[in-house]
Amino acid sequence: MTIAKIYFLLPLLFLFTSCTEASTDQTTSSLASEAGKTILPEDTAGLAKATFAGGCFWCTEAYFERLQGVEAVISGYSGGTKANPNYSEVSAGETDYAEAVQVYYNPEQISYQELLEVFFATHDPTTLNRQGPDYGKQYRSVVFYRTPEEKKIVDDFVRHLDEAGVYRDDIVTKIQPFKKFWDAEGYHQDYYVNNPSDPYVVSVARPKVAKFEANFRNKLKPEYRD
Hints:
By secondary structure, the chain is of the alpha+beta class. It has one domain: Peptide Methionine Sulfoxide Reductase, Chain A. Helix content is 29%, strand content 18%. It has helices at residues 19-22, 57-65, 87-91, 112-121, 148-164, 191-194, 199-215, and strands at residues 48-54, 70-78, 98-105, 130-131, 134-135, 141-145, 174-177, 181-183. The strands form two sheets. The chain has a six-stranded mixed sheet. β6, α5 and β7 (174-177) form a beta-alpha-beta unit. α2 (57-65) packs parallel to α7 (199-215). The protein starts with 18 loop residues before the first helix and ends in an 11-residue tail after the last helix. The active site is at residue 56. Pfam families: PMSR. GO terms for molecular function: peptide-methionine (S)-S-oxide reductase activity. Keywords: Oxidoreductase, Signal.
């Protein structure tokens, strides 16, 4: 698998529903509660955290959850300043937050560099404030680094992509220090799994996840390899 396999830039995606439109009737879904996921300190002992924003978090969450070495993924909001942001205002572009995911992973099983490979291969880092049918600064591409070492890894990785000519256009992904992550509402957690009939999941997310599984098969958890 090489990073050059960029397979999500499909014009047909623009014909489908957007992440925001697909969510309008999901707030009362019986498949998920408002409480969201519970991540206890004892559950994260020995785990590292990484935070990414790359479009609708329903898709981003689904990719990372399938990776061997990833123990949990939370959908939420990062990159903004307002306390306690909610989906209604974030999705409407009323805040400076981006839809993001927080990844809890075992660094002995998967590296930060490998997470970056997945991140850059599963969205278009050359489109400003847009991913497929989703428009707005809330869908911008961002890597939130936690340490100087992580920043160097990201800088080197992006430089490699540029030098290799992987993309025709310039990479616009922001590389920013991590400050705060707010969990999204409970019905957004595991959205891809819990809402298989959602129009956005059917027309946009499912084809992308299927291609991700095919191209990253050697990095998937056993249950996703069949």
